[in-house]
TrEMBL record:
This is Uncharacterized protein. InterPro entries: Leu-rich_rpt (IPR001611), LRR_dom_sf (IPR032675), RLP_Defense_Trigger (IPR051502). Keywords: Leucine-rich repeat, Repeat. PANTHER family: RECEPTOR-LIKE PROTEIN 12, RECEPTOR-LIKE PROTEIN 14. One of its GO terms (cellular component) is plasma membrane. Belongs to the RLP family. The keyword Repeat applies.
């Protein structure tokens, strides 16, 4: 929908009980007259935080694809204390993410800061956002290592996406405390060290895991996933000669999971087991995508 001038928001003034409004791509700059709105999507406009200044009933605010060109406008949104979902992806926000700026949102469950220009590190101040279920810092310019506390204290977290940054160092073992985690994506970073078996083994709620394109070392055994009955997607794509994936221990094991996607390219699969094809695939009946290329595997594919 397009208009020659600004969107005629005054036409909605009579809709006193309106709760959901999607004005994406409409060229508007304010909705303050709609006092009972609970969900607002002004995506692909030229609005900023002031568009929602007086909408203190909002639970869902999607400001994605609106250019802020600067830091997060914390003061303009601080009064939105009922917010449960805040999407600030593709807004050209920059600087160091100020986690304290989000602490006024006591009911915030979803925070999407992906595809911006944030720098700095993931700070221990994350513990203040204890209500979070989903958080994404994907595809920014974050660096440094993950803190030993703060992030690990978000025990209700269901999705954590840190992909596409420049994070490095070893993964803190305290991440095993995130036992409710369903999606864990740290792909395309610079993490090093070993994947501690006890850390992975404790995350039995995982449905999606992507550790691709890092510089991990040592052996990762699928035995760590033996109790992961909900797992559907595994992505461990690598081109690091110091990292190896082992799928055949214990011998003859039958996994509890049914995978839809398994991507294990260039990860030196079963290098110490004669480079045999992964036998667990014989028990996977819902596969949609499989990539085990560049592993120099030998033998017949299970059928």
């Amino acid at each position: 929908m397009t208009f020659n001038k600004n969107f005629p928001i005054s036409e909605f003034a009579a809709l006193e009980n309106l709760e959901v409004l999607d004005l994406s791509n409409c060229n508007f700059n304010g909705v303050s007259i709609l006092k009972k709105l609970k969900s607002l999507n002004p995506g692909y406009n030229r609005c900023n935080g002031s568009a929602a200044t007086s909408l203190n009933t909002l639970k869902n605010l999607d400001l994605s694809n609106n250019p802020f060109l600067g830091p997060f406008p914390a003061q303009e949104l601080a009064h939105l204390t009922n917010l449960e979902k805040l999407d600030l992806s593709f807004t050209q926000l920059n600087g160091t993410p100020d986690i304290q700026a989000f602490t006024s949102f006591h009911q915030l469950k979803v925070l999407d800061l992906s595809w911006n220009h944030f720098v700095g590190s993931v700070t221990s101040a994350m513990h203040a956002l204890s209500s979070l279920r989903v958080v994404s810092f994907a595809y920014n310019y974050l660096n440094g290592s993950l803190p030993d506390h703060g992030l690990c204290e978000l025990k209700n977290l269901h999705e954590l996406d840190l992909s596409g940054n420049m994070l490095h160092g070893t993964l803190p073992e305290c991440l095993k405390n995130l036992s409710s985690l369903k999606l864990f994506d740290i792909s395309s970073n610079q993490f090093t060290g070993k994947l501690v078996p006890s850390f992975i083994a404790n995350l039995t709620s995982l449905e999606y895991i992507d550790f691709s394109h890092n510089t991990f070392e040592g052996l990762f055994s699928f035995n760590s996933l033996s109790n992961h009955s909900k797992l559907e997607v595994i992505r461990f794509l690598s081109n690091n000669d110091k990292f190896e994936v082992e799928t055949e221990e214990p011998i003859g094991w039958i996994p509890m999971f049914q995978l839809k996607v398994v991507m294990l390219s260039s990860c030196n699969m079963n290098r110490n087991k004669g480079r045999v094809l992964p036998g667990f695939l014989l028990h996977q009946h819902q596969l949609q995508e499989v990539d085990i290329s560049h592993n120099h595997l030998e033998g017949k594919f299970p059928n």
